[in-house]
Specification:
mainly alpha, Fic-like fold, 3-stranded antiparallel sheet, 58% helix, 7% strand, globular
Length: 387
């Protein structure tokens, strides 16, 4: 349905010139979103897929391991959309705190993303409401170190920003003037906390994401926080106990269409086209996450069987394999700490796992060696290559 423009334009100074800044109309859309026929079927399909993802813990021996790895995969993907070149391997090496040479600025951005998500989820679990204060707190974590740390972390912007173009006058989009940010975000906060009877949770997440990106309330980090907002809304709405659904890979794979649909909402009021795209992404992404969990379970089982067939030393090797499931990029020092085994014993086990093709040594050095659990990392890396 085309509703015409979904806001109003206000003249605003930016970069020494006057621009037309867009102030969105508060949610929900008027007239109401059409939820019938094919769209209702798509909503039901996406909801069922989310339900299967929410029960993924029943088939995993340790759901926290999957969550640990999957959150890091999402952090890499979401940051890549903003232009970072970090890989999942870079992040895991950075988290070892032992390996110099990883690209600091890029990896710090990814690490900040994880800190922001963990802070937001911890607050929601403690019954703190999803509100603008929480988003500002998460923004502090998101921008605490590295690039953007000088751009008012935790504060709504007090200057005009713009998206795309070489200057404000030829920007692809100009968000609301600074004086409009607080009232726009106050209205969005009210929408966050509408009952599910008024707006289904998945639809609420779809609409709120566009509205947040349109307001662009911070000087930097809006894209990443806007994608985190989806996970928070699904958790608050009771669809997901753990933050296991992330659309960054889907948005990355359909980047031109993603931006086109955001613009169509603003200029034509075509919320339906955006919601269809969003729900399809939810269904595909949830199904993909379940399949990833299943593949990891199969990998662990297959590798355990291979180790057990070696006979002598298998008990120690299984203990090390279990540690690698927690830390797929590990040093011998970390593996000793995780398993309680001696350095020579762990070194001998890693030599065996390398011979079996389960692990691979990264440094080529005799000392301070780093090992990667290749099969595990390969599954998580799919679609996560730097742009």
């Amino acid at each position: 349905m085309l509703r015409d423009i979904t806001g109003r334009y206000v003249s605003s100074p930016a970069g020494g010139e006057m621009v037309n800044a867009f102030v969105p109309t508060p949610l929900p859309p008027v007239p109401a979103l059409e939820l019938s026929g094919a769209r209702q079927h798509l909503l039901e399909r996406a909801t069922v897929a989310i339900g299967r993802l929410d029960s993924v813990s029943t088939m995993l021996p340790d759901p926290q391991l999957f969550l640990y790895a999957y959150v890091r995969r999402e952090a890499v993907l979401s940051s890549q959309i903003e232009g970072t070149q970090s890989s999942l391997s870079d992040l895991l090496l950075f988290e070892l705190d032992e390996v110099p040479g990883v690209p600091f600025d890029d990896v710090v951005e990814v690490s900040n993303y994880i800190a922001a998500l963990e802070h937001g989820m911890a607050r929601l679990r403690a019954d703190f409401p999803l509100c603008n204060r929480l988003l500002r707190e998460m923004h502090v974590h998101l921008m605490s170190r590295g690039r953007g740390s000088d751009k008012a972390p935790g504060e709504f912007r007090r200057s005009q920003n713009w998206i795309g173009g070489t200057r404000p006058g030829n920007a692809r989009f100009v968000p609301p003037p600074p004086l409009e940010v607080e009232p726009c975000m106050a209205a969005l906060e009210q929408f966050f906390n509408q009952s599910a009877d008024a707006t289904p949770v998945l639809i609420k997440a779809a609409l709120a994401h566009v509205q947040f990106e349109t307001i662009h309330p911070f000087l930097d980090g809006n894209g990443r926080l806007g994608r985190l907002l989806i996970a928070l809304l699904l958790h608050q709405g009771g669809l997901l106990a753990q933050p296991l659904l992330y659309l960054s890979l889907y948005f990355k794979q359909h980047r031109p269409l993603y931006y086109e649909l955001l613009d169509r909402v603003r200029t034509q009021g075509d919320w339906e086209a955006w919601v269809d795209f969003f729900l399809e992404g939810v269904a595909q992404t949830a199904q993909g996450a379940v399949q990833t969990a299943q593949r990891l379970v199969e990998l662990f089982q297959q590798d355990s069987v291979r180790i057990q067939s070696t006979g002598r030393g298998a008990v120690n090797a299984l203990r090390v394999l279990n540690a690698l499931r927690s830390h797929p990029v590990s040093s011998l020092k970390l593996l000793c700490s995780e398993t309680g085994m001696t350095f020579p014993t762990v070194g001998k086990v890693m030599q065996m796992l390398t011979t079996l093709g389960i692990a691979r040594e990264l440094t080529g050095q005799r000392r301070n060696r780093i090992f990667v659990y290749d099969g595990y990392l390969n599954i998580l890396n799919e679609g996560g290559e730097a742009l």
